[in-house]
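Worked problem 6 (solution included).
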Amino acid sequence: MAKNLIPEIARMLGVELGEEFKIKGYEEWFYKFDNDRMLMFKHNDDVKMPVAPVSVYVAFLALLRGECEIVKLPWKPKKGDAYYTFEIFRGKWVVRSLWWTGAPCTYALLDKGWVFRTKEEAEDALTKVAAEMGVEYEI
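Solution. The predicted structure is:
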């Protein structure tokens, strides 16, 4: 029996299984790898509309040949996921872990690019953001 290489191919291309991404030059489409294939679809009011397999195969081969480049999308937590962001504590900006609720203020943080999967990512970003904004921070 042959080994399923899709998980390894996804890793080699820099994406995780289930992670949505785009392909440079074809930004109207979304792509993702599941455990045994690559999927291609469009979003339409939160409904994913799949595409014919032939189009997916063409995109997949272009990626494998190095003819196209993956465009990573910002990570977006799902309801109940932990995430990291910034807040003010005792007059300084600090990194804080919160639970994603989907409240309007959390979408504002997401749009600004201030929602992170790991504490380390948030700390790296905080040093840059604080310098740009001229605010004090503490790691």
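Discussion: The CA atoms of residues 38 and 60 lie 7 Å apart.
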